[in-house]
Every structure is written in structure tokens, then in C-alpha cells.
Amino acid sequence: MSETRSPREVFHALLDGITAGRFSELAELYAEDAVVETVFEPVGPRRFEGRAVLAARFAEVGAASPLELAAANVVVRETDDPEVVVAEFDYRAHHRVTGKRFEVANIQVLRVRDGRIVHSRDFHDHLALVAAGGHLPQLVAAMESR
Q1: Once rounded to an integer, what is the mean pLDDT over residues 23-27?
Q2: pLDDT in tens, 47-81
Q3: Taking the alpha carbons of 55, 58, 62, 63 in that order, is the dihedral positive or negative?
């Protein structure tokens, strides 16, 4: 990178990549030792460490996701820490298998250093995603078996 992108620009690159379905490119937005926490993940892992792990995760999501996502109501707030932005946004989603259309609320707190995400705390409405896919019974069973 010849010019370092601001935290706001990096967030928008991430959002643009997700909504365009360019999952194979997303890991490049993260530092080699990045940490991503998916705080409201109901069943799966809530912490991912390292660009290689994130690349594998993005490949998995990109290959398996039945969703078309369009970002809406995007607000990015700068903080008193120049490395940190808080992004609030919705996904207008279409589930290609069930045909359902719905919105998913999201908040991401990103720390960006030298143009790459070093830490992200992601607050996504996973329940809306599970419900749209018709997987509530499996989610309940998985949570009860914990």
C-alpha cells in the first residue's frame, strides 16, 4: 500500500467487499496478527486470531452463505482515539434459499493501524440470520447442549 487508508476508509472497504461478495479479498484488510471478536455469536467461535484464520473463515462464509446483503443506514463515528471507529449499519438481506427478506442490525468497533484492522469487536444480529434460514430449532438444540 503506497498510501495508508484511514479507519473510516478501511471500514468502507470491508463493507463494500462483504456486500459485493468478494470474501476472498477481505483478509487483506486485516493485520497479520488481527483479532476479531463476534460478541453475540450464539454457538460458534467468538474469537478469531490471525489473518490466515480470518482468510479461512471468509472462504467458508463466502462458499456457504445463501445471503445477498446490501448495506443501509451506515453511520461511521470517529472516536477520541484516532485508530478507532464505531460503525452502525443495517444489512438489507435476501435469503436465496427461503426467499425471505429482512434487516440485520450491526455495530462494529474497529481499531485500524497502518491501514489494516488490528482488532474488531462485531455485534451482529445473529438471531435474525438464523431465523431467516429456518434454523431456530438447531440453534436451540446447540445452545441446550452447551
Answers
A1: 95
A2: 999 999 999 999 998 888 888 999 999 999 999 99
A3: positive
> What SS3 class is residue 82?
coil
The burial class, CB within 10 Å (0-12 / 13-18 / 19+), for 115 is: middle
Cβ within 8 Å of residue 136, ≥6 positions away? 130
Going from the C-alpha of 49 to that of each of 27, 91, 100, 120, 123, the distances in angstroms are: 12, 25, 33, 11, 17
In the sheet that holds 67-78, the strands lie side by side as 47-49, 30-38, 116-124, 101-113, 84-95, 67-78
Give the predicted TM-score (pTM) of the model.
0.89
Give the three cell numbers for residue 7: 479507519
